[in-house]
Amino acid sequence: MLEGSEAAAKFIDTLIDAKLNGTDIDPDVRQTLHGDLLGRLEDQIIRSILDLMTEQQQMELEHLVDSNQIGKIEDYLTKRGIDLNRVLAGAMAEFQAAYLGA
Fold first, then answer.
1. d(CA 38, CA 73)
2. Residue 10: CA atoms inside 13 Å, Cβ hemisphere, count?
3. Which among 12, 18, 79, 81 has most CB atoms closer than 10 A?
């Protein structure tokens, strides 16, 4: 979901820089950390979306994913009253607080 997202990559880079506070790390380690954090952020976003859905809606969403109807997901969520921008902002804020607070 976030793979290839320039905004998500910049967000993760900002978090890493804030956490390191000027400390240098090996580029390979940074790349691995970046990939791990991006995956965790994606998991956070997915959990946040699923928390807003009924069990039936989750099954319908799963069907869209399983049948490779990825292009229909955003429309499906919007029609169910899920504000993706709000979910993303909330998930990113929670992720940032958890990562920088740790």
1. 20
2. 3
3. 12
Check if the beta carbon of residue 38 is closer than 8 Å to that of residue 8. Answer: yes
Helix runs in 1-102, H state only: 6-20, 27-51, 55-66, 73-79, 84-101
Long-range contacts of the stretch 13-22 (C-beta < 8 A, 24+): 15/95, 15/96, 15/99, 15/100, 18/100, 19/99, 19/100
pTM of the model: 0.86
What b/e sequence results for 37-64 when a residue is b if at least 16 CB atoms lie within 10 Å of its CB, and e otherwise? Answer: bbeebbebbeebbeeebeeebeeebeeb
CA nearest to 41, candidates 70, 76, 3: 3
Residue for token digits 């240098």? 24
DSSP state of 23: -
